[in-house]
Write a structure and sequence with these properties.
The chain has a domain at about 40-90. The protein has helices spanning about 45-50, 55-60, 80-90; strands at about 30, 40, 70, 75-80. The chain is α+β, with helices and mostly antiparallel strands and about 100 residues long. It is built from three helices and four strands, in the order ββααββα. α1 packs across α2. About 30% of the residues lie in helices and about 15% in strands. It starts with about 30 loop residues before the first strand and ends in a 9-residue tail after the last helix.
């Protein structure tokens, strides 16, 4: 008797079928290498943090106002780059500590 193999989470895809693109996590991604404990954020994550529309974040990325990484068709922004972007828009220089 033939039995159908069970589907695991790794085998499931975005549409819930086999043979299409694997499902991808959309949360922050940890960067390795020279960036320390830096995380990569999606434009949606950045938009939520800055309380702006996701299209605004994408526009900043395309215009090179906000530094980001294009991975395939997806944009990612590091925590440090987001912090630098926000601080660059401040009306006063950072306070000395």
């Amino acid at each position: 008797m033939l039995s159908r193999p069970s589907e695991t989470d790794a085998e499931l895809t975005r549409e819930g079928r086999r043979g299409t693109v694997p499902a991808v996590s959309r949360g922050p991604v940890e960067m390795n290498g020279n960036h320390g404990n830096d995380h990569l954020l999606t434009p949606s994550d950045v938009a939520e943090r800055l309380q702006v529309n996701e299209r605004t974040v994408t526009k900043w990325l395309r215009k090179n106002d906000l530094r980001g990484y294009k991975i395939g068709k997806e944009w990612r922004v590091s925590d440090n780059d987001l912090k630098a972007f926000v601080e660059a828009g401040a009306n006063l220089p950072p306070a000395d500590r």
